[in-house]
Design a protein that fits this description.
single chain; 429 residues; Adenylosuccinate Synthetase, Chain A, domain 3; 2 domains; 10-stranded mixed β-sheet; 4-stranded mixed β-sheet; 33% helix; binds guanosine-5'-diphosphate
């Protein structure tokens, strides 16, 4: 049985916590896209962790953690993360890395910085982890797959060829120091030694695991609105954030993905550029940011304060639809307990017309939120374990959102810990 955990919005919905919780029942957890550009925060009995590359299942010793072929693999970052969690007392995790995963090269990170510098104020708000240059090279067919590290002669020859084209850009466009293929070769030899114990034919491994009836969890990064096709292009990430891509990025048949759990946060937060229609500002935003998540809404990778907004039903309905949602996990609901009234964005007004359909980027920039105000519950709901024990106004909020988005909310998360979860039967199926 394969399940996917993905995000409905801009990312940071709390996927890490939901994956960590579901990992208890899982044999294998797979990262299938993205790179070290986003992070998950996980709180468990070992402590609090920010993971960028490792799947959230690394904290259980019964699970195998897999980096699929679709990931932008930053080898020193992965290696460093394994060392660091072990340094905090977590037992050596079982990690496998696809022999077809491509490697984030040191120059991808440099190009990311140089391009942001060049664009100045018109930049996309990249985390400068090399992700966009990495995926450009992948699709331009000048990337390096992990297995190429094991073929020294062809590797040297290819490095020379790639450096030639990169150096033209470095010299004439960016006016920066040139790449040295010999030096890069030595770096890649170090990468090879770090990654060698983990290399695996992942799709064959997963094929056997599926036939053996193993429980497999696909762990998405970011959310629908950051998808390069269906998101707010060009303020998106460079690999698909959709559950459908889980099949490609892990190397499994699409029909094997039986459950798609889409994580929606009870309010909005976003990083980087792009329209957030229900965005709030000033003291109202500061307070939600301060109280949000677990210790405030600040980027896990960059520490940047996140942009804040009310729950956006238009974006979330669209986000759930593109994911192919079977279940919604509604998270961080406990944070809203301080509000007397809770605005919810139920529609957009674009050029004088109301809509509940999520528009393309140009129209999105012109959209104004249509808000409906719901009463708050003014109570701390952390620690509540059954749906019926939630305050009436809180249940009304959940059911209102569920009706607006049209997908079943079967899990409600009311705290950052694994046990802070309320399962519910939805009337929608
Ligand atoms: P991800 O990238 O989707 O995993 O999102 P983040 O790592 O940004 O997670 C959001 C933050 O919210 C993290 O600090 C989590 O520990 C925290 N979190 C997750 N679920 C809940 C919840 O239900 N309540 C609270 N208060 N915090 C939560």
């Amino acid at each position: 049985m394969v399940k996917a955990v993905v995000g409905a919005n801009w990312g940071d919905e709390g996927k890490g916590k939901i994956t960590d919780m579901l990992a208890k029942e899982a044999d294998i957890i797979v990262r299938f896209q993205g790179g070290a550009n986003a992070g998950h925060t996980i709180v468990n009995s070992y402590g609090k962790f920010a993971l960028h590359t490792l799947p959230s299942g690394v904290f259980y010793n019964h699970t195998t953690s897999i980096i699929g072929n679709g990931v932008a693999l930053n080898i020193p970052a992965l290696f460093g993360e394994i060392q660091s969690i072990m340094g905090q007392g977590v037992p050596q995790p079982k990690v496998l890395v696809s022999d077809r995963a491509q490697i984030v090269m040191p120059y991808h990170i440099l190009f990311d910085q140089y391009e942001e510098e060049r664009l100045g104020g018109k930049s996309f708000g990249s985390t400068k982890s090399g992700i966009a240059p990495f995926y450009s090279d992948k699709y331009a067919k000048i990337g390096f797959q992990v297995h190429e590290l094991l073929e020294e002669d062809t590797l040297k020859e290819k490095l020379k060829r790639v450096c030639e084209t990169k150096n033209v850009l470095l010299e004439h466009l960016y006016h920066k120091p040139l790449l040295n293929p010999e030096e890069l070769f030595h770096t890649l030899q170090e990468y090879r030694d770090m990654i060698r114990p983990y290399i695996c034919d992942v799709s064959a491994f997963l094929d056997r695991a599926i036939k053996d009836g193993k429980n497999i969890l696909l762990e998405g990064q970011l959310g629908t609105l950051k998808d390069p096709d269906h998101g707010i292009y060009p303020m998106v990430t460079s690999s698909s954030t959709l559950a459908a891509y889980g099949a490609v990025g892990a190397g499994i048949p699409p029909y094997e993905i039986r459950q798609i759990i889409t994580v929606c946060k009870a309010y909005s937060s976003a990083v980087g550029a792009g329209a957030v229609v229900s965005e709030i500002f000033g003291e109202e935003a500061d307070e939600l940011r301060r109280r949000g998540g677990d210790g405030g809404e600040y980027g896990v990778t960059t520490g940047r304060p996140r942009r804040m907004g009310w729950f956006d039903c238009v974006a979330s309905k669209y986000g759930c639809r593109l994911q192919g949602t079977t279940d919604v996990a509604f998270t961080v609901l406990d944070v809203l307990g301080y509000l007397d009234e809770i605005p919810v964005c139920v529609g957009y007004e674009i050029d004088g017309e109301a809509t509940t359909d999520f528009p393309t980027t140009g129209r999105l920039e012109r959209a104004k939120p249509v808000l409906e105000i719901l009463p708050g519950w003014k109570e701390d709901i952390r620690g509540i374990r059954t749906y019926e024990d939630l305050p009436q106004n809180c249940r009304d909020y959940i059911e209102f959102v569920e009706k607006q988005i049209g997908y079943p909310i079967t899990m409600v998360s009311n705290g950052p810990g694994r046990e802070d979860i309320i399962y519910r039967k939805s009337a929608i199926s």
